[in-house]
Amino acid sequence: MARALTQREILTELEPVAGAALDRHLAMVKEWHPHDYVPWDEGRNFAQLGGVDWDPEQSRLGEVAKAALVTNLLTEDNLPSYHREIAENFSLDGAWGTWVGRWTAEENRHSVVLRDYLVVTRGVDPVALENARMTHMTNGFAPPLDAVTAAGQAGFLYSVAYVSFQELATRISHRNTAQFCEDPIAEDIMQRLALDENLHMIFYRTLCGAALDLVPDQAMVAIDAIVENFRMPGAGMPDFRRNGVLMAKHGVYDLRQHLEEVLLPVMRQWNIFGRNDFGPAGEQARERLAAFLGDLEHVRVPRFEEQRDRALARERARL
């Protein structure tokens, strides 16, 4: 049986892969600037500077678009917590450090453009938005305890598995949010962010795939723990449950999308169920994962869709 590698050993072995993935990312990423996406001529002062404070009638966004945009923005706002997690569990040396800095800078643009757009267009209450930001960032982000315990440690393998799924989930949420904005400017913003998230996902997916080749059992245990305990990084924000239910009910991001557009495609990319290099620990983790995915497909997703359809029918009946 192969010896389990330490986190430092794994990072050292995978640094050439990280360097190649970083070079590919820098060759593919498109330069863009948040100020180019904001309709500044719609802006006006608020009451403190002699203008008018926000009123719900000023917003042209629907309820679903507001919930999705606020959720996406507050998620991006919590970047300091994510940077800390990535920096602690990756490395600040060599290609790893360059990636951590580059990824952080790119993600920060997302919160800049979303907030500028929402405040300038008066899409949501800026006071409520700021209060929610303060609460969410004060609480911060930490990996789910159950996943950490199951994986044995909250280290590189846990982190790289988590962001492989999370970045793709965020891309899909951004892309689908665009469809509810009914504003071509907001649609362009969300499509732009989705393109960034896709490139981030490719980097992390590549590194997690390389980790599977290097330490199959250790990586498989981490992947299973992440999938079974997955939560989006905004789970602790104010009104997350309400907004999450609204987004799921209307197809911004729901359980079937999570299964069919996030979990299964990534695991196919890694050939999880076609590999023959697992030892006992990896095989057991793969079996647990298969059982979990089966329950998700045959029990949880149909149950969610039945409940969603009933809720939508009740809404239509009230109209």
UniProtKB/TrEMBL annotation:
Binds 2 iron ions per subunit. The keyword DNA repair does not apply. Keywords: Fatty acid biosynthesis, Fatty acid metabolism, Iron, Lipid biosynthesis, Lipid metabolism, Metal-binding, Oxidoreductase. Fe cation 2 binds at E107, E167, E197, H200. The keyword Lipid metabolism applies. It comes from Nocardia huaxiensis. Signal peptide: none annotated. The lineage of its organism: Bacteria, Bacillati, Actinomycetota, Actinomycetes, Mycobacteriales. Pfam families: FA_desaturase_2. Belongs to the fatty acid desaturase type 2 family. Homodimer. GO terms for biological process: fatty acid biosynthetic process. Fe cation 1 binds at E76, E107, H110, E197. This is Acyl-ACP desaturase. One of its GO terms (cellular component) is cytosol. Its cofactor is Fe cation; Fe(2+). CDD domains: Acyl_ACP_Desat. One of its GO terms (molecular function) is metal ion binding. InterPro entries: Fatty_acid_desaturase-2, Ferritin-like_SF, RNR-like.
